[in-house]
UniProtKB/TrEMBL annotation:
Catalytic activity: uridine(55) in tRNA = pseudouridine(55) in tRNA
Stated family: Belongs to the pseudouridine synthase TruB family. Type 1 subfamily.
Task of the protein: Responsible for synthesis of pseudouridine from uracil-55 in the psi GC loop of transfer RNAs.
InterPro entries, alphabetized: PsdUridine_synth_cat_dom_sf (IPR020103), PsdUridine_synth_N (IPR002501), PUA-like_sf (IPR015947), PUA_sf (IPR036974), tRNA_psdUridine_synth_fam2_C (IPR015225), tRNA_psdUridine_synth_TruB (IPR014780), TruB_C (IPR032819)
Any single Pfam family the record assigns to this protein: TruB_C_2
Stretches the record annotates as Disordered: 1-24
Family annotation (SUPFAM superfamilies): Pseudouridine synthase (SSF55120), PUA domain-like (SSF88697)
Domain named tRNA pseudouridine synthase II TruB subfamily 2 C-terminal: residues: 247-301
Native source species: Amycolatopsis minnesotensis
First-level EC class: isomerase
Protein name: tRNA pseudouridine synthase B
Signal sequence annotation: none
Superkingdom per UniProt: Bacteria
Gene: truB
């Protein structure tokens, strides 16, 4: 006899979760855990974090997964610890050591040289991604090719480092540790900054620790740990609040609201980029863009 099943748990409401990712977990690990906590398969993440990194990871729940590809998460802030004196295969502390500078070579790196090296890596720069990055090469992730034994020579690409501020410099035997704030464009590899800073100083360098404090408009202040979610499984932002926070807002009357819910084109709003369309009662109806004098729905979030 089959055992009688209890009542099915209702799905959670749609919205965004801002998780403070712990070290040692992949972004996919976090998604799997949140699926169990929230009781739904419909969970996706916006922008990965390396297993060693901690901090802000934005997850979409239920219908809010449709937002993830449209979120303007093109600016991110990190607290980084950079180690000068050795380089590694992965440009971070999890890789095997490639080079090690002598104590004399490390001692020869002056505070002024560090400041000058940081200055050269600030602004609009050309950066070679880490070989074990998620950059695709001929349709395959770079890290997968490296793990298969391939030697990769990735081309540099433009990124922007808006801010690279040194907070603390610590000198230890045979190494220098820097704590820094890095505010950068999406696609910037902080471990590549550590690698290039160390290389420029002639001592080698790698990333010792990384904590992401902001992704687009979402900050650590709104983030919760997985343990906190286990105790209280609730959203960081409802679907309405998430769209209001992440996109410009357009409020429409009842007539236009109905047309938007049916996916019809409506008069343009004069707003650049993707924006949220809201009904008179404050519900978000769709994400839309202006094209040739009309507004076209990119995704309808509250269909008729």
């Amino acid at each position: 006899m089959s055992r009688p099943q209890g009542p099915r748990r209702p799905p959670p409401p749609p919205g965004l979760l801002v998780v403070d990712k712990p070290p040692g977990m992949t972004s996919h690990d976090v998604v799997a855990r949140v699926r169990r906590i929230m009781g739904t398969r419909k969970v996706g993440h916006a922008g990965t974090l390396d297993p060693m990194a901690t901090g802000v990871l934005v997850l979409g729940i239920e219908r809010a997964t449709k937002l993830l590809g449209h979120l303007a998460l093109d600016r991110k802030t990190y607290l980084a610890t950079i180690v000068l004196g050795s380089s590694t295969t992965t440009d971070d502390a999890e890789g095997e050591q490639l080079t090690e500078a002598s104590a004399e070579e490390v001692a020869a790196v002056t505070d002024e040289a560090v400041a000058a090296g940081i200055a050269t890596l600030t602004g609009d720069i050309q950066q070679v991604p880490s070989a074990v990055s998620a950059v695709k090469v001929d349709g395959k992730r770079a890290y997968a090719r490296v793990r298969a034994g391939e030697q990769l020579d990735l081309p540099p690409r433009p990124v922007t480092v808006y801010r690279f501020d040194l907070l603390v410099l610590r000198r230890e035997e045979g190494r220098i540790e820097l704590d820094a704030v890095v505010d950068c464009s999406s696609g910037t590899y902080v471990r590549a900054l550590a690698r290039d800073l160390g290389a420029g100083l002639g001592a080698g360098g790698h990333l010792g620790a990384l904590r992401r404090t902001t992704v687009g408009p979402f900050a650590l202040a709104a983030a919760r740990t997985l343990e906190q979610l286990e105790e209280k499984p609730e959203l960081s932002f409802s679907l309405d609040a998430a769209v209001a926070k992440a996109f410009p807002r357009r409020d429409v009357g009842t007539g236009l609201a109905k047309a938007v819910q049916y996916g019809q084109k409506v008069p343009s709003a004069g707003i650049d980029g993707t924006y949220g369309v809201f009904a008179p009662d404050g519900r978000v109806l769709a994400l839309a863009v202006d094209e040739g004098g009309v507004a076209r729905s990119v995704v309808v979030l509250s269909p008729a």
